[in-house]
């Protein structure tokens, strides 16, 4: 039995591996810690420090990460939209370079698409998808896109004054009156027809008693002159032979002179009655009373603009009918001469000094004429004719006038011989006058349509490659036509920006940044 217990104790001691030879249990040996344990503890502490630092500075880095993430999603969306499944990775890479605005030239060379170097296009700041947009050819046509090239130039600041096209007083309208009493037998033109100076207008059968008497007196004087001239010729012959005294010849020559003076007076009286020299010569040659009178169109006077085209007068009114009896001075019709008109501007009283300066120095002004569907038409290089010395009591407006040469836009003759014309500018037409008041030098001047305002910011959209990138600019001055941009490095000479259609690009970019429908989420209804 003792032998068996001894063997079991030996087995137990062997199983624990901690027995000594004397049978007393041995203590467990202590393990030595390795370097890996210390490295792991240091890494854990470092990770906790980084996490704490990131948590405390989340207000600084979290918005940037969100913007970067949104830009990446938009880029992936645009890439997937432009390249359907199946396109190669190389195509995606090329499209990303194009979207980044790097396909317009070598960045290292610093050259624009048009060859002008610009640091703005090298770095392309703000040319991410959030600030740029690519338009298809159809979209460009839909918005009526036009481009403008940035250049430094002189700018004339102007004030816009409302104005109206008016007639030239005493020049545009010409009244035709009956020179003597008679009956209208024929009217040559029709209303609205254009006639040349000297063209026949009316035929009158003369019934004027004074005119008949003047013509009869002229005929009697002519007959008496013929008799006296024959008598003088006979007396000159007999006086030379001594048969008749020279006193008688002198008496007949004296009578001849009186008759010639009377004829001259009768001619002048007929001219005052409205007869022309040709008509008077007809009476003298034919020795017949003038039964009818033809009234012709007067010549065009005081119109330097008529040198550019043929002279025309337009029949705007016919006041009589054939067979109507008219007295001396009766209005027969009205002719108009629209080859030159006036623009009547109405400025404020405080603009008098600027107007007088422009008139004295001959500073050119511009007339803006709004076309019906054909856009705005400008007439530049005009000068102020005069400024009125009175201010209207009711409107408190100061009127001034500018000469406006007219242009023929229609000149057609009908088969029956009547000619009709049309003028570009018409009395009563409302226009605008641009009067210069200040001159600036070396400014960036763009069409006002190229600058988009949103709150306190002004933007232009620069073309870089195939994309239009938004640029924030400072506008120093803006009117109805132009915007003056500060030269601060936002734009450089030679840059190309959107003019017409810039606002539509701005709206499209805002819609894109506002989180439009996901193209991969299916159809939107």
Topology:
Blueprint: H1 2-16, H2 35-56, H3 58-82, H4 89-99, H5 119-123, E1 132-134, H6 137-142, E2 147-149, E3 152-166, E4 173-177, E5 182-187, E6 194-195, E7 200-206, H7 209-241, H8 246-272, H9 277-286, E8 292-296, E9 313-318, E10 325-326, E11 331-336, E12 340-348, H10 352-361, E13 365-370, E14 376-382, E15 384-391, E16 397-405, E17 408-413, E18 419-423, E19 430-447, E20 452-454, E21 457-464, E22 467-473, E23 475-478, E24 482-485, E25 496-498, H11 502-513
Antiparallel strand pairs: 1-22, 2-25, 3-12, 3-19, 4-11, 5-7, 5-10, 6-9, 7-8, 9-11, 12-16, 13-14, 13-19, 15-16, 17-18, 19-24, 20-21, 21-22, 23-24
Helix pairs in contact: 7-8
Attribute tags:
single chain; 525 residues; alpha+beta; Elongation Factor Tu (Ef-tu), domain 3; four-stranded antiparallel beta sheet; 25 strands; 34% helix; rod-shaped; disordered N terminus; disordered C terminus
CATH-assigned homologous superfamily of one domain:
Efflux pump adaptor protein, beta barrel domain
CATH topology of one domain: the name is: Elongation Factor Tu (Ef-tu), domain 3
The percentage of residues in β strands lies in 25-35%
Count of helix runs = 11
Distance between the termini: 97 Å
What is the overall shape?
rod-shaped
Can you summarize the main beta sheet? 9 strands, antiparallel
* Low-confidence residue ranges: 1-29, 76-126, 515-525
> Can you give the mean pLDDT?
78
CATH class of one domain: Mainly Beta
Helix content: 25-40%
Instruction: Indicate the CATH architecture of one domain.
Output: Beta Barrel
| Structure classification | alpha+beta
How big is the Rg? 51 Å
Number of strands: 25
């Amino acid at each position: 039995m003792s032998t068996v217990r001894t063997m079991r104790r030996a087995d137990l001691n062997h199983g624990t591996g901690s027995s000594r030879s004397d049978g007393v249990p041995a203590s467990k040996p202590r393990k030595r810690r390795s370097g890996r344990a210390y490295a792991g503890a240091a890494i854990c502490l470092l990770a906790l420090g980084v996490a704490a630092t990131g948590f405390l500075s989340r207000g600084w880095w979290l918005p940037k990460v969100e913007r970067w993430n949104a830009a990446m999603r938009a880029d992936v969306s645009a890439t997937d939209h432009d390249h359907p499944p199946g396109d190669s990775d190389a195509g995606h890479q090329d499209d990303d370079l194009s979207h980044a605005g790097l396909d317009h030239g070598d960045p290292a060379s610093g050259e624009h698409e048009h060859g002008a170097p610009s640091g703005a296009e090298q770095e392309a700041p703000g040319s991410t998808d959030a600030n740029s947009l690519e338009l298809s050819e159809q979209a460009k046509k839909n918005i009526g896109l036009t481009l403008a090239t940035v250049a430094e130039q002189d700018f004339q600041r102007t004030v816009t004054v409302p104005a109206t096209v008016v007639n030239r007083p005493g020049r545009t309208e010409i009244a035709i009156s009956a020179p003597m009493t008679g009956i209208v037998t024929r009217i040559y033109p029709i209303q609205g027809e254009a006639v040349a100076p000297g063209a026949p207008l009316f035929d009158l059968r003369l019934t004027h008693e004074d005119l008949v008497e003047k013509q009869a007196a002229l005929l009697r004087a002519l007959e008496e002159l013929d008799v006296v001239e024959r008598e003088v010729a006979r007396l000159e012959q007999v006086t030379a032979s001594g048969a008749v005294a020279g006193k008688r010849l002198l008496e007949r020559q004296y009578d001849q002179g009186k008759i010639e003076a009377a004829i001259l007076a009768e001619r002048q009286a007929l001219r005052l009655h409205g007869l022309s020299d040709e008509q008077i010569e007809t009476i003298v040659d034919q020795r017949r009373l003038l039964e009818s009178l033809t009234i012709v169109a007067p010549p065009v006077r005081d119109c330097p603009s008529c040198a550019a085209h043929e002279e025309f007068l337009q029949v705007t009114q016919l006041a009589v009918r054939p067979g109507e009896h008219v007295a001396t001075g009766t209005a027969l019709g009205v002719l108009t001469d629209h080859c030159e008109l006036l623009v009547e501007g109405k400025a404020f009283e405080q603009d008098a000094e600027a107007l007088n300066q422009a008139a004295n120095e001959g500073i050119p002004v511009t007339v803006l004429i709004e076309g019906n569907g054909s856009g705005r038409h400008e007439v530049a290089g005009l000068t102020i004719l005069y400024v009125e010395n009175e201010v209207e009591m009711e409107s408190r407006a100061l009127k001034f006038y500018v000469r406006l040469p007219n242009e023929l836009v229609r000149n057609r003759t009908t088969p029956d011989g009547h000619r009709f014309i049309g003028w570009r500018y018409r009395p009563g037409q409302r226009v605008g006058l641009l009067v210069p008041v200040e001159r600036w030098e070396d400014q960036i001047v763009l069409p006002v349509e190229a600058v988009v305002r949103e709150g306190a910011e002004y933007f232009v959209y620069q073309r870089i490659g195939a994309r239009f990138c938004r640029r924030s600019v400072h506008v120093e001055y803006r009117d109805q036509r132009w915007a003056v941009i500060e030269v601060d490095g936002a734009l450089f000479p030679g840059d190309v920006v959107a003019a017409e259609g810039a606002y539509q690009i701005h709206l499209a970019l805002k819609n894109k940044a506002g989180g439009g429908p996901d193209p991969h989420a299916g159809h939107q209804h």
